[in-house]
């Protein structure tokens, strides 16, 4: 066999085996790497390079070395799942960088993290002022997790005391002009229904690039150049109603977040006056 053909054959074999090994080792090898997984990745890459290009007569020994690393890595992953001590040794421990709003200078030095690098990581979390952070920790992967102080955290429905029904994940039922039968079956829908909805939009199936249904059972379509259905143009009356609702919700929110009874009473008075004015406006419109 010519040497160039042997290199081609060995490279294809090595890539195939490396793909199988990566599947065995799991998704963590291609996402957030621990120190041990990082070393494993480098080693496997070097071994595959040896198998592909080394033209000596014992190149096949590289496959034995690969097998050994697979056993070692798989065994290490199993031990980390079963033992906290082993996990701390192989994966390392997380490091607290900010606690109770105070930066831990020694922790930054321990992780060899400069102030510029630290601020850059915070900006990636949409945090531009260190004083806004209550707690920050560097994970084993090197990523930094941040918890803002309560007064700087985004408002949620739970904080406001609102009870909201759960939202289901939109299901993609059409892709590249083809209906995904398994997803459609999971959604308990039929192809006839899909084609009927497409006819309402004056579209054919082969025109659809992406088609999804939401938790309400409504179909939305992307053709690659346009999206359907088109948003309806709301009337001035609908826009006024929406603005009124937003203002009323804003006043109610400020009332709930008021720090004392006096301020809370003022917001309640404003709410009552607002409702009186709106009631008079609605009567005038009718």
UniProtKB/TrEMBL annotation:
Keywords: Cell membrane, Membrane, Transmembrane, Transmembrane helix. The chain crosses the membrane at residues 7-26, 33-53, 59-79. Gene3D superfamilies: bsu07140 like domains. InterPro entries: DUF421, UPF0702_alpha/beta_dom_sf, YetF_N. It is found in: Cell membrane. Residues 6-78 form the YetF-like N-terminal transmembrane domain. GO terms for cellular component: plasma membrane. It is a multi-pass membrane protein. Belongs to the UPF0702 family. This is UPF0702 transmembrane protein YdfS. It comes from Paenibacillus illinoisensis. The lineage of its organism: Bacteria, Bacillati, Bacillota, Bacilli, Bacillales.
